Inverse folding.
């Protein structure tokens, strides 16, 4: 009697497992683009929340950036660019340091940090208030995606709204760390379709390619 009950429980357990398995097979895995877009939408939600902003600051100057974000439309990007990186970016950002003689493991760590630090470099040129505002509305996530072969980023550009930059840094066993930041550059916001201007803003060491959306 007891063995029959165990068999029944096992059969139910197997049925439940098969149900979850079939559901997972039908469920499409999110692309890097979709993960990045999700992060962008979370950032917009943060900017729209007065409570979120006030947790971090009472500065009216900084809070104004949350209002500016909220006034824009982030439903669908007008243009999306894929950004990839090479070691020239290390030479540019650390030109005063002798990174050529640096241990490879340390150089690799620097290189891995660069994709997510680009927005801070650009926002920093606009002043400390802009840099502070950009940190309040950052967002990120961790997920597994074995398709990512090298660190890269997506730049989501919207008509009349600040661009969102999302970096993707690969880890071990397919792990991916994604981090999103608004770029508060009026020049970039108003001229995102100008390829020469993009190169001027992002500089050497970054390859920029427009994506089909």
């Amino acid at each position: 009697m007891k063995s029959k009950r165990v068999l029944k429980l096992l059969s139910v357990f197997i049925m439940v497992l098969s149900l979850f398995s079939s559901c997972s097979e039908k469920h499409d895995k999110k692309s890097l683009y979709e993960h990045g877009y999700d992060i962008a939408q979370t950032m917009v939600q943060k900017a729209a929340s007065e409570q979120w902003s006030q947790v971090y600051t009472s500065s009216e100057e900084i809070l104004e950036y949350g209002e500016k974000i909220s006034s824009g439309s982030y439903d669908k990007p007008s243009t999306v660019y894929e950004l990839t990186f090479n070691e020239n970016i290390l030479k540019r950002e650390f030109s005063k340091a002798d990174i050529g003689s640096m241990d490879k493991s340390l150089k690799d760590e620097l290189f891995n940090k660069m994709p997510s630090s680009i927005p801070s470099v650009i926002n920093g040129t606009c002043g400390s208030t802009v840099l502070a505002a950009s940190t309040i509305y950052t967002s990120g996530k961790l997920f597994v995606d074995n398709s990512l072969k090298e660190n890269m980023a997506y730049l989501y550009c919207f008509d009349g709204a600040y661009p969102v930059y999302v970096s993707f840094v690969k880890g071990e066993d397919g792990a991916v760390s994604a981090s999103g930041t608004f770029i508060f550059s009026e020049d970039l916001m108003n001229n995102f379709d100008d390829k020469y201007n993009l190169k001027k803003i992002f500089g050497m060491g970054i390859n920029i390619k427009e994506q089909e959306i």
User: Anything to note?
Assistant: Residues 30-211 form one domain.
